[in-house]
Specification:
The chain has 364 residues and is an alpha/beta fold. It has 8 helices and 15 strands. The protein is globular, with a radius of gyration of 20 Å.
Length: 364
């Protein structure tokens, strides 16, 4: 009888915990119907353009867990606080050139033409449903807080993973944002968190929205997956093309390498700047994240004039040293003669005017 009560308690606790707001909510109603009508919806879930297993053939999930938690991986965390510039989040550019401020991982602010566009803001201590689980933000990367962002013009969310869609950051930023653009299905999470539906625009691959008369955002394919609880790929994952009168930017989100980069480059390129992931890779999951050398090739495929590597510098979500991604990107870009911009955390770059390339991570 005692065992039965214990099982019942565990079941109830499981149901309570997994229904917490931080997990969000799966698409339903009209949103679910739209998702099911997408050409890449099959067998109850959304699919990548290419077959994309979560891990290579012959590698089990338990093998990956063992390697991640029970093997030693030196250098995953910086030994000292990382240098972080105190950014000016509100002042607009003095010229027509876009300004970009990177806050670590995949969070950055784009200021152009009087607008402030914030991408994938994650300012919690850990990119997980609970602060005591998973990687903690590196020392020195907590200078900027979610509450510092007031009246954002456009909030862009590429997909619903915890390191891109942060519950606490959304509660602080989204209510004051004028408009939110995200991948189809992600709006279900936002609505559950109390965000007004009329400010949310969800896009499928190939769909566009024109913002403030002259700024076009288009969702394009990525090679990844989604899910905040147990069911995967019920919401879409995307990269975004940002096109203005004066420039064109590629906002990469998360993606493994594939032929879609060349297809996007042929359709929407060339790009003045591509912001692409270069970290959190491993041979155990080679299809859903890029190795740094793949990142350089993806930028070339996109016909990007300059590459800005992101998805590193704040959290350790893989087993490589914290600064290995950018080291490898710099080496690969030099071989391919691809221009890079590698700002410090919080540093403002000005497209084609101030493009820092200092190897600051070698001193951190």
């Amino acid at each position: 009888m005692i065992a039965l009560y214990i099982i019942l308690f565990l079941v109830i606790a499981f149901l309570v915990i997994t229904n917490l707001p931080v997990f969000g909510r799966l698409p339903r109603g009209l949103r679910l119907a739209k998702t099911q009508q997408l050409p890449n919806y099959n067998q109850g879930a959304l699919q990548n353009l290419s077959v994309t297993p979560m891990q290579p053939e012959g590698v089990s999930f338990f093998t990956i867990l063992k390697a991640f938690f029970f093997e030693k991986h030196p250098g995953k965390i910086p030994v000292q606080a990382l240098p972080f510039n105190q950014p000016d989040l509100d002042t607009q550019p003095k010229s027509n050139a876009p300004e970009i401020i990177w806050f670590g991982h995949s969070s950055y602010l784009i200021k152009l033409d009087g607008l402030r566009i914030l991408v994938d803001p994650v300012f919690s201590k850990a990119p997980s449903p609970f602060s005591f689980i998973g990687s903690k933000a590196f020392p020195g990367t907590d200078v900027v807080k979610a509450a510092d962002f007031k009246n954002i013009d456009v909030l862009v969310i590429t997909h619903d993973h915890y390191d891109h869609l942060d519950y606490q950051s959304m509660l602080a930023i989204a209510p004051g944002a004028k408009t939110i653009v995200t991948s189809l299905g992600v709006g279900e999470h936002l609505e559950k968190w109390g965000i007004k539906p009329d400010k949310i625009t969800e896009l499928a691959w190939g769909q566009s929205i024109t913002l403030f008369d002259s700024h076009e955002l288009t969702a394009v394919p990525a090679r990844h997956f989604t899910g905040r609880k147990f069911k995967r790929n019920r919401t879409l994952w995307s990269a975004f093309v940002l096109k203005t009168v004066n420039c064109k930017l590629f906002l990469g989100g998360d993606s493994g390498y594939d032929t879609h980069f060349a297809q996007i480059g042929g359709t929407y390129g060339p790009f003045d700047l591509a912001l692409l992931e270069c970290g959190q890779y491993n041979a155990y999951w080679p299809y859903i994240h890029m190795f740094p050398e793949d990142t350089v090739q993806a930028a070339i495929d996109l016909k990007a004039k300059v590459l800005m590597p992101v998805h590193w510098g704040k959290f350790s979500l893989a087993m490589h040293p914290w600064n290995e991604p950018v080291k490898r990107v710099v080496e690969a870009a030099a071989v391919k003669h691809l221009p890079l911009v590698t700002p410090r955390l919080g540093e403002t770059i000005i497209l084609n005017q101030y493009m820092p390339t200092e190897n600051w991570w070698l001193e951190a």
